[in-house]
Design brief:
This protein is mostly beta strands and about 575 residues long. The chain has 3 domains: about 130 residues, Sandwich (Immunoglobulin-like), CATH 2.60.40.420; about 190 residues, Sandwich (Immunoglobulin-like), CATH 2.60.40.420; about 190 residues, Immunoglobulin-like, CATH 2.60.40.420. The chain is about 10% helix and about 35% strand. It contains 6 helices and 33 strands. The longest helix has 16 residues. It catalyses: 4 hydroquinone + O2 = 4 benzosemiquinone + 2 H2O. Its EC number is 1.10.3.2.
Length: about 575
Amino acid sequence: MGTSPAIVMILFVAVGCFMAYPEAVTAKHTGITRHYTFNIKLKNITRLCHTKSIVTVNGKFPGPRVIAREGDRLVVKVVNHVPNNISIHWHGVRQLRSGWADGPSYITQCPIQTGHSYVYNFTITGQRGTLFWHAHISWLRATVYGPLIILPRQNESYPFVKPYKEVPILFGEWFNADPEAVINQSLQTGGGPNVSDAYTFNGLPGPLYNCSAKDTYKLKVKPGKTYLLRLINAALNDELFFSIADHSLTVVEADAVYVKPFEINVLMITPGQTTNVLLKTKPKAPNATFLMLARPYATGMGTFDNTTVAGILEYETPSSSLKNRPLLKPGLPAINATNFVANFTSKFRSLATAKFPANVPQIVDKKFFFTVGLGTKPCPKNQTCQGPTNTTKFAASMNNISFALPRIALLQSHFFSQYSKGVYTTDFPAFLLIPFNYTGTPPNNTVVNNGTKLVVIPFNTSVEVVLQDTSILGAESHPLHLHGYNFYVVGQGFGNFDPENDPPKFNLVDPVERNTVGVPSGGWVAIRFQADNPGVWLMHCHFDVHQSWGLGMAWVVLDGELPNQKLPPPPSDLPKC
C-alpha cells in the first residue's frame, strides 16, 4: 500500500520544523543543552575616578547573562587565567543529583587553580525565573557575578500579564580597595572589615557619588507598557531598600518561584535574594524624570556603607522635550526600619495552585533549632586585636559552632568515605547545648567553638529548622541561604521562639518558597524542606563578612535506595586541592 501525498507532506513539514526549531520540539520534554565558556581574567575598571584591576568573567563587569529554559542542560566551562583560586556557584539552582556542580569552594569541590579549568554540567529541573551565579570563594563575588535567567518551557506562559520587555537589575557593591585585601586584613586584626565605597545598579554607582554622573544606570521606557524587572541583590554585605519615584511595583516572583502578586512602593531584598516585579508605566509620557534608589537596611552594631545608589527611569520622548524636566525622588524607610521589613516579608505567599503547588511537609521527621549570630574568638598570644576588645576577634556561629572550611572538599570526603576521617565530624548539635535568653541581655561568655561539624540526615527526611537571631554583639538580620534546596518559610516572629505557642500559627497552606531568607533582627524564622537531594549542602549567612567569620554549617543528605536517589560519581575534571 502506497503512502498518500498528504501524509508525505505532513512528514516533510514535521521534519522541517524539527530542523529549523530543535529547541521548540525537544524543550517540552527534555530541553536542550546550552554551552557557555567563562574565562576568568583580570580587567582594569574605573569607578568613582578610581581605576583598579578586578577579577571578571570574560572581561565583563557585571558578568555575562546566562539564559536557559526550564528543562535545559547547562554546560559551562570555567577557565582560570588569574592568580586567585576560583569556583562558581549557581545560586538557587536545585542541582538535583548534580552536587558536583554546585560550586562552593571546599564544600562540593576544591577551587579551580590558576591555569586549570572545570566544566559545570547540570540540568534545570522544575525551576523557572530569576537566579544568579557568583564566585564562591573568599570575597571574589564582589566582582564575579551575573544573572541566570530561566525562561518557562517553550509554549508555557507566565502566570501574570506578558511583559513588553524584561530587564535584569543587579545590585552590587564597589570597593576602591581590593576586596580580598579588605577581608584578609579583617581576619588578621580581628576587627570589622572596611566597608564598600558605593552601591551599584548593573555595575554603575550613579550621580550621588563622587565623579560618577557619567556612570549612571538608565532604564528607558515607553508609556503604557508593562516591564518585568528582574531584581538581584548581589551585594556582599548589605540588605537593600529599593524604590522608583512615583511608580508602584507588583511583586510576582521571589527566588525563582512565583508568588501571589502584591503591589508595593518600596521593597527590601537581602543578599542572595531575587525579586521579579512588574512595572506598569504611565499611559502618557510625563514631563518628569524619575530616580530609582537603593540604600541599606541595617540593624547591627557594626559600621556599614551608609550611601545611596541612584539610577534613572526615563520615558522615551522627542529629545527636545527632555530639557528642564523635574527630577522626582522616591522616599525610602529609615535605615533600621525592622517593622517595615517584617510587614513586607509577611506579604509573600506561594501561588499554591494545581500547576504551581506548595508542597509543604505537613509532618516533620526531624526538628532543629539553630542560633544565628556573632561572637568572639580569643586573640593570638603576643598580638593586639581590634575585635570587641583588644584581646578578642570578631567571630560568627550557628549553635555556637564557628564553621571552619576544610582543606579537602566535603562532598569528595563524604563520597569517598575513606577520606572523611579528620576532614569533618558529624556531631553538629541539633539544638543549642546551653540555652540562654537569645534576644535579651547577652551572656558574659561570647567565645565560640571552631569546627567542621555536619548534620547527617537520611534521604527524603522532612526537616524543620528554626533559625533564631541572638543579641550577642547586637541583634541583626541575617540572610540565610541553603544550597541544593528551596524551603518553605512557615513562620517568623520577634523575640525568642516559643516551641509551644508559635508552631500552631505556622502557615502550612501557602507559605513562600525561597532559597534565602532573612532571619529577623531580634527574632526567628521557621523553615521546612524535604531532603530529596543527596549530597553535601552548605547553609550559611549571605553576608560575606559573617560567612568569613564562620556563620555556616553543612548538611549531609544520604543516598536513597533507588538508582535515581543516589549521587553519581564526580566528573573526571573535578579540581584537586
